[in-house]
Structure prediction request, 203 residues.
Amino acid sequence: MREAISHLKRERIVAAAVDLFYKQGYGKTTLDQVASELQVTKPVIYAHFNSKNDLLAEICSRAITLAHESLNRVMAQDTSVTERLETVVSDFLTAVLTHQPHAMIYSREEKELAQKDRDAINALRRDFDRRLVELVNQGVAAGEFQVDDVQLTALAIGGIVGWAPVWFRANGRLSLEDVVSYMASMVLAMVRAKKSRKSKSPK
Prediction:
């Protein structure tokens, strides 16, 4: 119970900081403002985060951490490589778009991160890219994909996902589910895979 309460408090702090960092920028936001938003004292925040920069690092790492968790789950599944790639792209896009403000804050405020945090996040991103290359290579080896340049294709897939938070609008023409489904289908077309039964075109 104590652990659950601590987790809930931590998530409320992150949510308040995301709201303020997104609206007014990291530099213009103070921990006093975050505390005021939550109607708590600043020591409550320090019980969970050592500094404002520590809080920024937590926010910036969320989407890529979720992507790694999804990749770990997918790679353990006994499914075709085509299904794995579709699931990875769908889960990664869903994580990025569900945490859209986090991704935008990372894009704008990466330079504000402590070097160790920036290095840690970049290492996660490089590792995800490396494993994505491995997945595409597996598809080629299994005869499921037709790809001329595996590394370039994997980079393009990562770019599709990484750029999505810039243009996606929750109240736009397409729902999050429609966008995720369509983009996953587009990635499968890029690798010239057989169309998965999971994919569908947006209405």
Summary: The chain has nine helices and no strands. The mean pLDDT is 90. The chain has two domains: 1-49, 51-190.
